[in-house]
């Protein structure tokens, strides 16, 4: 008997998530969470669900949430899909939209889940190197492909693409799906949702984990034309899973409705990022221009791994990727509160 399960164990390389240590006395700046917490209105909406209705099954189609998202972005309801975190949306869209004979393309330095899904679904892929400035260059993607996926802004670099470049991707690759993973878009990027009406090959993916500070709730979404959304729904229904539980649906609706809190907290993160980047420059760090809630930075004289260890000894956790080699000299640092970032600057002054 062929041991197919053995092949699974030996060939699949699982995603390695950032560390989630106990929070006591730690400044945790390693997994791009939002330091401000969810909207108080979202918390109240979730508490009301817990108090009153958990004995009932949730709305299987998440209809009120789809309507809220559609209204928020000015798209028809049949253009919206929701899932348990954008990771689930990605897990469904890889088999639904990206499996072709030609390879899927994505940057060589990007969200490390993409090759994991390709392994899982046996999707042929090619990575495309970022250019010398660590940017995604549309000209480098001029080759036959079965789909394209990249984050905008990219992770872990934080470097964003203008809308005109996204449109260039859509025009040059009209025959395949282009997925723009906008996990960090609200911290300074320009969303591609406005292009969805014109481009049937565009799927935009977003999450409530970052700019709406609901990483623990697991809510993600996709916006695209109905033929793409229908394919996602078909794959999801094949797993017989409810998209979202009652608490998640209620919290997500209220989080979208609380625009004032969203604007206030994301502006604070952006302001702290600008201050923090200037402080890092004073210390001799070179930081890539970030449109995200994190910065990607290196010091010409100090090894990133050693800096990460020294920070950890001072109870501050940042992310260091050993591979690919081109980024092994960088640290990825999440933007926390001004106090957390100031503590990090103080620690770096001690270390350097
Ligand atoms: N896309 C990118 C680029 C990310 O960095 C992340 C967060 N790790 C995700 C998607 C997934 O986020 P979530 O599942 O919390 O929505």
Question: Keywords for this structure?
Answer:
352 residues, alpha/beta, seven-stranded mixed sheet, binds 4'-deoxy-4'-aminopyridoxal-5'-phosphate
The description of the largest β-sheet is: 7 strands, mixed
Net shape: globular
Strand numbers in spatial order across the main sheet: 2-8-7-6-5-3-4
- The sequence of SSEs as H and E is HEHHEHEHEEHEEEHHHEEHEEH
Helix proportion = 25-40%
Q: How many strand elements?
A: 12
Instruction: Give the number of helices.
Output: 11
Spatial extent as radius of gyration: 20 Å
Low-confidence stretches: none
Q: What do the pLDDT scores average to?
A: 95
Subunit structure: Homodimer.
Cofactor: pyridoxal 5'-phosphate
Pathway: Amino-acid biosynthesis; L-histidine biosynthesis; L-histidine from 5-phospho-alpha-D-ribose 1-diphosphate: step 7/9
Family: Belongs to the class-II pyridoxal-phosphate-dependent aminotransferase family. Histidinol-phosphate aminotransferase subfamily.
């Amino acid at each position: 008997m062929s041991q197919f399960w053995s092949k699974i164990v030996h060939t699949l390389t699982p995603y390695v998530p950032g560390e989630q240590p106990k929070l006591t006395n730690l400044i945790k700046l390693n997994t791009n969470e939002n330091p401000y917490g969810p909207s108080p209105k979202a918390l109240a909406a979730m508490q009301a669900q817990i108090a009153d209705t958990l004995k009932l099954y949730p709305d299987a189609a998440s209809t009120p949430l789809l309507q809220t998202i559609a209204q928020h972005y000015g798209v028809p309801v049949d253009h919206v899909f929701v899932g348990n975190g954008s990771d689930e949306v990605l897990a469904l869209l890889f088999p639904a939209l990206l499996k072709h004979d030609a390879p899927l393309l994505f940057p060589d330095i990007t969200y490390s889940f993409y090759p994991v899904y390709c392994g899982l679904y046996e999707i042929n892929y090619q990575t495309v190197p970022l250019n010398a400035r660590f940017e995604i260059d549309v000209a480098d993607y001029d080759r036959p492909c079965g789909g394209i996926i990249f984050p905008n802004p990219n992770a872990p670099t934080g470097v964003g693409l203008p809308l005109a470049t996204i449109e260039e991707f859509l025009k040059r690759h009209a025959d395949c799906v282009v997925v723009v993973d906008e996990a960090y878009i609200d911290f300074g990027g320009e969303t591609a949702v406005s292009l969805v009406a014109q481009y049937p090959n565009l799927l935009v993916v977003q999450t409530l984990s970052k700019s709406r500070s609901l990483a623990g709730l697991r809510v993600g979404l996709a916006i695209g034309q109905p033929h793409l959304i229908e394919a996602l729904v078909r794959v999801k229904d094949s797993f017989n899973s409810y998209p979202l539980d009652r608490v998640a649906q209620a919290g997500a609706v209220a989080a979208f409705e609380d625009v004032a809190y969203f604007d206030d907290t994301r502006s604070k993160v952006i302001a702290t990022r600008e201050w923090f980047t200037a402080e890092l420059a004073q210390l001799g760090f070179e930081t890539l221009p970030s449109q995200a809630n994190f910065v990607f930075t290196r010091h010409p004289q100090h090894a990133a791994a050693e800096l990460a260890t020294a920070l950890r000894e001072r109870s501050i956790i940042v992310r260091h990727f050993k591979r690919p080699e081109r980024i092994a000299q960088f640290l990825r640092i999440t933007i926390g509160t001004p106090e957390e970032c100031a503590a990090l600057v103080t620690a770096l002054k001690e270390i350097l």
